[in-house]
Write a structure and sequence with these properties.
There is one protein chain. The protein is mostly loops and 69 residues long. Helix content is 13%, strand content 9%. It is built from 2 helices and 2 strands; from the N terminus they run βαβα. The mean pLDDT is 80.
Length: 69
């Protein structure tokens, strides 16, 4: 699991799961239709089945930098 405060991509799960979040922070989830994540990943999402990967491992840190307000 990536460090707290980092963006992560979770592949297709192999079963039901539960996550418990404590403290403060934000969680945002998006569920894609079959094949819809391919343009973002550039490879079949089946390669992420059952794993959670730090977004920086997939795309590097540059496009994920937070915009200052």
């Amino acid at each position: 699991m990536p460090d707290a405060g980092r963006l992560a991509v979770s592949g297709v799960g192999r079963g039901r799961f539960t996550s418990v979040y404590r403290g403060t922070g934000r969680v945002f989830g998006v569920k894609f239709r079959s094949g819809a994540f391919l343009p973002f990943l550039g490879a079949p999402v089946s390669g992420l089945t059952g794993v959670v990967v730090a977004a920086e491992q997939l795309w590097g840190s540059r496009p994920l930098r937070r915009r200052r307000r």
